[in-house]
Amino acid sequence: xxxxxxxxxxxxxxxxxxxxxxxxxxxxxxxxxxxxxxxxxxxxxxxxxxxxxxxxxxxxxxxxxxxxxxxxxxxxxxxxxxxxxxxxxxxxxxxxxxxxxxxxxxxxxxxxxxxxxxxxxxxxxxxxxxxxxxxxxxxxxxxxxxxxxxxxxxxxxxxxxxxxxxxxxxxxxxxxxxxxxxxxxxxxxxxxxxxxxxxxxxxxxxxxxxxxxxxxxxxxxxxxxxxxxxxxxxxxxxxxxxxxxxxxxxxxxxxxxxxxxxxxxxxxxxxxxxxxxxxxxxxxxxxxxxxxxxxxxxxxxxxxxxxxxxxxxxxxxxxxxxxxxxxxxxxxxxxxxxxxxxxxxxxxxxxxxxxxxxxxxxxxxxxxxxxxxxxxxxxxxxxxxxxxxxxxxxxxxxxxxxxxxxxxxxxxxxxxxxxxxxxxxxxxxxxxxxxxxxxxxxxxxxxxxxxxxxxxxxxxxxxxxxxxxxxxxxxxxxxxxxxxxxxxx
Length: 489
Ligand SMILES: Cc1cc2nc3c(=O)[nH]c(=O)nc-3n(C[C@H](O)[C@H](O)[C@H](O)COP(=O)(O)OP(=O)(O)OC[C@H]3O[C@@H](n4cnc5c(N)ncnc54)[C@H](O)[C@@H]3O)c2cc1C
Hints:
Layout: H1 12-35, E1 41-42, H2 45-50, E2 66-69, H3 73-86, E3 90-93, E4 110-113, E5 120-124, E6 129-132, H4 138-146, E7 150-151, H5 164-170, H6 177-180, E8 187-194, E9 207-212, H7 224-228, E10 236-244, E11 246-247, E12 254-260, H8 263-275, E13 282-287, H9 288-298, E14 308-314, H10 318-334, E15 339-343, H11 346-364, E16 369-371, H12 381-395, E17 398-404, E18 409-415, H13 421-440, H14 456-462, H15 465-478
Helix pairs in contact: 1-3, 8-10, 8-12, 9-11, 12-13
The site of flavin-adenine dinucleotide has 38 residues, from strand 3, helix 5, strand 10 and helix 11.
C-alpha cells in the first residue's frame, strides 16, 4: 500500500482539535495514556502516518493527533469518551484497504484501529450464524466457518486483507455478490459504540449499544442495523457483528470464459445474460490492460490477445449447471465473442480469477491509481462502457477496466504517471464525468467502495435533496457533535 498525500482534511470536530495545536494533542495523548495500556497508543509520527490513510491514493489525509489500537469494546468506549471530552474526531479503521479515503485521518483526530479486535467469538452451527469482532479478516472468517461446513459468501477482491468491520462499514460487495448478495444481506446484528441518544437520554458519547438480532427474521423497530451498514464510520464504531452464514457449497463450479474484440461487445453480453434471466454466481470483466499488468507482475501465463474477457462462474450442480454454463456461452457468442471456452478445471479457472483480484495492486505499482466505482442498470452496461472509453479519450487519460460486470458495477482505473500534474487534473475531470454519465443512465456514483472523500460531490449530484436532508437529520440525531469520521460520506 502506498502513502496518500497529506494535506489538511478537517471535519468540524477535527478543526476544533487542530486549533488546539500541540497543547491539544498533548492533552489527548495524556488522557489516552491514563486510560489505556501503553502499547495501545500510537504516537510515533511514521507509524501514525502509515495508519492515517487508506488505499485511495488520491484522497487527501489530515494530520492525526494520535492512533489507538484497541483490543476490546471497553477500550473503544474509553477512546470515544476521551475524544468527546476533548472535542477530537474519531476515525475508525479496519485494514485500510478502502478505495474512497473513508479511513483517512482528519486533522487532530484519533485514528481508532480495530484490526486487533480479531476474535471469532462464536460459530453457531445449529443456527447458521456467527459472532465476530470487527478486526477479523474476511478470508480468516471464511476459513474458520469452513471447518464447520459453513460459508460466509461476501467476497470483496480484498478478502485476504480487509476486515469484517470495514466490510460492514462500507457494505462491501465482491465477486459472488451477484448471486449471493452483499455484506448487508448477512448482517443480522451489531454492537456499536455510539454517541447521541444511545442510552435513551442525554447525549452520551461512548455508550455501547446492541442493534438488531440473532434470528433470521425480525421487524421489531426501525432497521438500525441497516442504517449502520454502509455508514462509513460516521454513526459510531462497530465493535461486534452477528452474521448469517450458508452451508458450504459442494461440487466443482463451472467456468465459462468469453473473449471479446472490444469492451462494448463484452458489455452487450452482460446485458444479454441478464435479459435471458441466467444466474451465474460470478460475472466479472477484465480488459487487456489489466491482463497485461497482472502478467507483467505475476507471470501467471495469461494471454492478453482479446480486448476484454468475461469470466462467468456457475455453481449449480449436475445437469442444470452444465445447461446454465452452455447458455452463458451462447449469450456471449451472440453478443460477438471471438471465442468461448468452458472449464471445470479449478486450477485453470482460478488463475483467471486471481488475475481479476490482482488487477488493482498490479496497477498500483505503476503510479497513483484513481479508482472509479460507478454502478448502472445492467442493460446500460454496454452504453456506460462506451461512454467510459469516449470520456477517457477526450481527456487523454489512460484507463484499464475491471468490473463486477454482472452487477453493472464498473471500475475503470485511471493511472497517471507519478508527479504529472496535468495528467492528474485530466484524470480528475474524467472521474467526475464518469460519475455524471452513470447518474444520467439511472446509476449510482458508488456501487460498493463508499463515498468517503472522493465521491462527496458526486453523491450530492446523485441524491434527491430530500434524501440528503434526511441523511443529515439522522447524523444530527445520532452524532450531534459530528465526532465520528467527520467530513466523510
Ligand atoms: C485490491 C483491492 C480490491 C478490492 N475489492 C473490493 C471489492 O471487490 N468489493 C468491495 O466492496 N470493495 C473492494 N475493495 C475496497 C475495500 O477493500 C473495501 O471497502 C473494504 O470493505 C474495506 O475494509 P477495511 O477493513 O480495509 O476498511 P478500511 O479501509 O480501514 O475502512 C473503510 C471504512 O470503514 C470504516 N470502518 C472500518 N472499520 C470500522 C468499524 N469497526 N466501525 C465503524 N467504521 C469502520 C472506516 O472509517 C472507513 O470509512 C478493494 C480494495 C482493494 C485494495
